[in-house]
């Protein structure tokens, strides 16, 4: 059953990206009074924010648009020139991507130039600028380059887009030549054709060749930048330092794939900019395959850092030998095998891990605010992060494994698929738990953020005071104080992404790793990471629990649908939450093409769901009802049933699942099954009305067993032994009484003669079946019709009695009796009667006499009377079940014990008797007398109580008032109680 809904926000963001929507401008946060420091902080902070914006735009718009391309929503591929039409519809998005890539090139060039200019600052402008590493800026540069790498990988693996573009590009070249030579013939302005040609050529050269990363890194820079050895060493040192830190963290924790991609991008960028290959750095980064050989980027795209290095490194043979390549290849294969082996193991452990985490969440979040201390708050935050980390671990495993299955075109075993189903449900259950506790999580995150923020401010303020207390106020000290002031001011306002970027950039300008102790510097790094995590916790939960990768694994979805009934551990409502994540990658509703794609995907998924699960569920329920109704025809199966694998219990649980949502529609499973059973029972009953009793029993059983409420078919009721129809008999009553004989003792009709081998009978049960079929109303019609027929027969009977031969014989006997009355002592002789009967019998020998007809007429009259009796008995039989609800007429309650139990007074009984005797009870009830008396008593009691309190200064009541209250209370009980 499909029901249209309003658009639901599929991105279940538990918390906003920042606690406050007010995002201050960077310039408003940098007022230290030191122009150089302020400008440097503004420059780098703005560039970092620009990279964040570009990353979000790429992730939310362009990645999905490129990967989803090829969905034939409107069926244009089946028509001639469909590929050209599809690319033509996609061209505006390619143009936007081209503009976006150019913007990335500009930002990249700006970052490199700004970093080089900052490193080259003279001491007169900023003392010892070279000591400030600006790690966050370098990390943002790597993230920017990773965007271009992702584009290259997506386009490279998007074979449909490549094929369509080649066809379109060839067709476009031919068409453009024709249009340029004859623009008037095609109605095209020649001034607009050249920009279009240039755009298509640029898209072909930059985007479709999948060289965005190389083209970006090979941009032209100033000669002094490329020959600057100090900048060369700085970039190399930063890259190695970032990798070493990544490697240390990856040893004990989940490797950060985004950071690794940024590091590889920086390493190769160093090679392209300075046209030299640092063998040591490349080999160091090459060892990343030991921790992370391959990982999922987006969609079905899998990226291997080492393979990317092999494709882009110059002089590969000099840097990477064959043994290293073989080791990397072996690590990739081992990772795939390990993931396949880990799948069932993780599915088994997921239940215990999830239950433990849920119990901890319920325990910690149910604590009142008075009980929450700093330690409790830390436990809560660690609990949140534990759930996110586990969901991220499972999601990474699934994405990497399933994407490799698609790329390498390998099949997954049934057990592994079942394990993958459980992991997806676990991921979505974690998201549901976050959604359930969203308000408590928001409150805890706000408190934890305030604590971390206060801790940072305390550390910065303490260092600020320490430096100010020193007597030496050099230019560097002033610059450091200015940077610390900016950081402190940024953290003192609301917590937002902008404030955190400005604060962290200001601390790097202050060279915090040198002015703070090592432990304090590490603590500050942890606090910044914690603040960034807490301020974007909702986005992190959404990203880690997003299962939109199922869009490219619709065969996997089909396998889940087909296994729902047999798989007793499946939870369809959670899996549908994962399916609904697909909608987030299909674009916004502003684009008409995106709307068509969404509708196409939704219909495809619904057809799979209906075919593989809904219809199968309906058939299973119908089969179970049918077997249960006919269970009396077979021997009982005495094999004990396993309650965990009982199909009946499984069906009950599946029918109790609430309506699931598929994009913007609701699918009510229970109502779908009800409509299926209603339609099936109606159609089968219409074909064979004698099965109506069976399907009615199945409908009642469906209500009792599965709580399925089915509409009645309203079709005539029949049974297998239905017998002749009462209406047909009534309609042909004349032929019926002639053709049937009535057995008075057994109360049934039997056919006199038949052309077939069987004789038809009409019993009470047959009449009851007809009444059930047509309703009780046919009894009146049938009996009325029978009496009308009797009226005619009695008239004929009276006419036959006036026959002359019979009449003369009767007159003769009558005259004899009157003449010999005295002699016969007024007693008619028996011998005379016997002679009369014998004479009457002799009259029937002649053919022209009507006596035989009289006998037949009397028999027919008796048959009609028997038929009326049969209809009456059939009516009683048909209403036998309903009669069970009638009270026993002999069980009449006695008035005396009821009156005694109610303790009614003789006066009350007398009044009631008089009212009933005079038929005035209804009129008396309309006066609402007892309600009026009750209100009057309550009013007098209230007045008496108020008067006693006002007249007495003590707590005790006045004696007269107490007596009056007691009398009123007694009167109220006696009058109103007797009346009720």
From TrEMBL:
Pfam families: WASH-4_N, WASH-7_C, WASH-7_mid. Residues 909-972 form the WASH complex subunit 7 C-terminal domain. Residues 25-548 form the WASH complex subunit 4 N-terminal domain. It comes from the Eukaryota. Residues 549-890 form the WASH complex subunit 7 central domain. GO terms for cellular component: endosome; WASH complex. GO terms for biological process: endosomal transport; endosome organization. InterPro entries: WASH-4_N, WASH-7_C, WASH-7_central, WASH7. PANTHER family: WASH COMPLEX SUBUNIT 4. This is WASH complex subunit 7. It comes from Wuchereria bancrofti.
């Amino acid at each position: 059953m499909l029901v249209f809904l309003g658009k639901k926000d599929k991105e279940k963001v538990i918390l906003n990206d920042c606690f406050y929507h007010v995002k201050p401008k960077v310039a408003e946060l940098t007022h230290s009074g030191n122009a150089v420091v302020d400008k440097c902080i503004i420059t780098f902070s703005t560039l970092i924010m620009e990279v964040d914006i570009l990353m979000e735009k790429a992730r939310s718009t362009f990645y999905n648009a490129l990967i989803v391309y090829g969905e034939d929503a409107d069926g244009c591929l089946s028509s001639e020139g469909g590929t050209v039409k599809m690319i033509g519809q996609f061209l505006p998005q390619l143009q936007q991507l081209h503009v976006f890539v150019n913007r990335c090139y500009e930002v990249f060039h700006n970052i490199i130039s700004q970093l080089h200019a900052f490193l080259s600052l003279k001491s007169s402008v900023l003392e010892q600028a070279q000591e400030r590493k600006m790690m966050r800026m370098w990390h943002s540069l790597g993230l920017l380059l990773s965007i271009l790498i992702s584009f290259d990988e997506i386009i490279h693996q998007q074979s449909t887009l490549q094929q369509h573009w080649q066809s379109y590009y060839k067709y476009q070249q031919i068409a453009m030549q024709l249009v340029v030579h004859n623009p008037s013939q095609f109605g095209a302005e020649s001034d607009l054709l050249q920009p279009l040609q240039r755009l298509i050529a640029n898209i072909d050269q930059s985007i479709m060749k999948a060289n965005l990363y190389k083209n970006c890194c090979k941009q032209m820079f100033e000669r002094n930048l490329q020959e600057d050895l100090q900048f060369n060493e700085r970039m190399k040192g930063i890259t190695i330092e970032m990798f070493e830190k990544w490697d240390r963290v990856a040893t004990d924790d989940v490797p950060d794939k985004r950071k690794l991609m940024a590091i590889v991008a920086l390493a190769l960028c160093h090679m392209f900019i300075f046209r030299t290959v640092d063998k040591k750095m490349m080999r160091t980064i090459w060892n990343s395959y030991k921790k992370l050989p391959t990982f999922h980027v987006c969609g079905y795209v899998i990226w291997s850092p080492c393979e990317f290095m092999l494709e882009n490194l110059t002089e590969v043979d000099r840097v990477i030998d064959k043994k290293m390549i073989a080791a990397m290849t072996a690590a990739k294969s081992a990772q795939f095998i390990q993931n396949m082996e880990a799948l069932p193991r993780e599915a088994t452990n997921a239940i215990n891990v999830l239950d433990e985490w849920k119990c901890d969440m319920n325990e910690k979040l149910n604590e009142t605010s008075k009980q929450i201390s700093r330690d409790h708050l830390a436990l809560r935050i660690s609990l949140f992060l534990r759930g996110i980390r586990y969901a991220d671990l499972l999601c990474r495993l699934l994405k990497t494994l399933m994407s490799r299955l698609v790329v390498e075109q390998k099949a997954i075993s049934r057990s592994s698929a079942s394990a993958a189903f459980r992991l997806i449900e676990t991921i979505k259950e974690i998201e549901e738990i976050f959604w359930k506790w969203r308000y408590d999580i928001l409150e805890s995150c706000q408190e934890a953020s305030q604590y971390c923020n206060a801790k940072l401010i305390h550390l910065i303020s303490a260092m600020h005071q320490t430096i100010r207390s020193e007597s030496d106020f050099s230019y560097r000290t002033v610059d450091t104080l200015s940077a610390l002031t900016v950081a402190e001011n940024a953290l003192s306002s609301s917590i937002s992404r902008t404030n955190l970027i400005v604060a962290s950039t200001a601390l790097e300008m202050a060279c915090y790793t040198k002015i703070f102790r090592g432990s304090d510097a590490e603590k500050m790094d942890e606090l910044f990471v914690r603040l960034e995590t807490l301020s974007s916790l909702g986005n992190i939960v959404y990203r880690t629990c997003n299962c939109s990768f199922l869009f490219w694994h619709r065969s996997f979805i089909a396998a889940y649908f087909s296994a729902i009934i047999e798989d007793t551990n499946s939870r369809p409502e959670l899996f549908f939450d994962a399916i609904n994540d697909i909608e987030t990658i299909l674009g916004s509703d502003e684009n008409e093409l995106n709307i068509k794609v969404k509708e196409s995907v939704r219909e495809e998924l619904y057809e799979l769901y209906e075919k593989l699960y809904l219809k199968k569920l309906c058939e299973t329920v119908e089969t179970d009802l049918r077997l249960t109704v006919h269970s009396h025809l077979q021997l009982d199966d005495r094999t004990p049933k396993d309650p965990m694998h009982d199909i009946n219990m499984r069906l009950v649980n599946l029918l109790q699942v609430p309506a699931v949502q598929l994009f913007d529609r609701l699918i009510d499973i229970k109502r779908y099954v009800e409509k299926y059973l209603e339609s099936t029972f109606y159609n089968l009953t219409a074909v064979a009305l004698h099965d109506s009793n069976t399907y009615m029993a199945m409908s009642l059983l469906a209500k009792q067993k599965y709580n399925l409420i089915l509409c009645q078919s309203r079709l005539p009721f029949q049974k297998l032994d239905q017998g002749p129809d009462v209406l047909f008999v009534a309609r042909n009553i004349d032929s019926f009484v002639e053709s049937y004989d009535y057995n008075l003792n057994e109360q049934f009709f039997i056919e006199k003669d038949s052309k077939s081998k069987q004789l038809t009978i009409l019993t009470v049960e047959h009449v009851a079946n007809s009444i059930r079929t047509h309703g009780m109303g046919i009894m009146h019609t049938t009996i009325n019709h029978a009496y009308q027929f009797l009226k005619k027969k009695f008239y004929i009977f009276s006419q036959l009695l006036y026959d002359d031969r019979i009449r003369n014989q009767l007159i003769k006997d009558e005259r004899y009796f009157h003449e010999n009355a005295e002699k016969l002592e007024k007693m008619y002789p028996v011998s005379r009667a016997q002679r009369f009967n014998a004479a009457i019998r002799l009259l029937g020998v002649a053919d022209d006499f009507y006596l035989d007809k009289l006998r037949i007429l009397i028999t027919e009259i008796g048959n009609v009377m028997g038929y009326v009796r049969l209809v009456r008995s059939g009516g009683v039989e048909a209403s036998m079940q309903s009669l069970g609800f009638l009270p026993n007429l002999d069980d009449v309650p006695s008035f005396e014990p009821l009156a005694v139990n109610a303790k009614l007074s003789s006066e009350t009984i007398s009044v009631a008797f008089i009212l009933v005797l005079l038929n005035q009870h209804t009129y008396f009830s309309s006066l609402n007398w007892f309600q009026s008396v009750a209100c009057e008593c309550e009013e007098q009691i209230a007045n008496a109580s108020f008067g006693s309190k006002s007249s007495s200064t003590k707590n005790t009541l006045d004696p007269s008032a107490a007596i009056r209250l007691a009398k009123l209370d007694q009167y109220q009980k006696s009058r109103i109680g007797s009346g009720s």
